[in-house]
Design a protein that fits this description.
The chain is α/β, with parallel strands linked by helices. It has helices spanning about 5-20, 20-30, 35-45, 65-95, 105-110, 115-120, 135-145, 215, 225-235, 280-290, and strands spanning about 95-105, 125-135, 150-155, 160-175, 190, 200, 220-225, 240-245, 255-260, 265-275. The chain has ten helices and ten strands. About 30% of the residues are buried. It comes from Pseudomonas borbori.
Length: about 300
Amino acid sequence: MLPDLKIVQLRHFVWVHELQGFHAAAEKAHRTQPAISLSIRDLEGKLGQALFEKRNARAARPELTPFGVQFMAYAKELIAHHDRVIKDMSLIAQHKSGHLRIASVPSIASRLLPDILTRFIGDATDLHVSLFDDSSEVVLAMVENQQVDFGIASLWEAESDIRFIPIWEDSIGVVCRSDHRLADETELSWQQLRGERLIANGTSRLLADTAAEELVADAQFYMSNMISLLAMLEAGMGITTLPRFAFPAEHGQLRFIPLSEPQVNRDIGIVRRADHSLPVAAQALFDFILRDNELDPKQV
């Protein structure tokens, strides 16, 4: 069986040599000199070779044996590796290092996550983040396939191994150009949208099973990409319905008008695998989001 070398004994060995004495090494280690001598003898016993030449009255400073000279380089290498691992693990444990992988619906990725991540990461330059923004279905699939640590989505299916924690509530409204005849309304009902050219999008399914379902069925256009959808709206091609979070903040050319009849809300939250623990950084961000929204992580 290979000997079990203790890092503390290796440190004692290096300190005796570098500080040129057992007394100085004992002071650095906050130990007694006999304790350091015993530590070195125990290390020599494990290695089966003497590390220092036998001391005599004229040898004030301990000298390394030929074996000790060879072992010194290995001892320093082991100490450096040990300290590097401890430092890295400490940074990971404090979510200051590692790789955080998140998938989110675009509305949250663009409206809320920039501020959340800025405050969460702070000055942690060794914490790397990969953010994927896509539809709720894609986000859910990435969570199920363990491509990301957790996701943020609105539409979801209650699979047995997926857990949904609602965080934000979003309401549906009508988006039109600022010079549209409906632009000055404070709220709208679906009946007021009859006869309008509707541009459907990925969130239009939220109107399914409501009184406004026929609007989606009669939509002349469908746009899956938000940039293309906004361009069509700016060009006056038609109107659309969007969740408030999905509407670009402070957009000068477009107006968001709440849809009051029917009033449609969607829950947006964190989706994660129920049967897997989160990596340290992901768990820290998860808890940060909950606390940021005044939710107790211990009760979720």
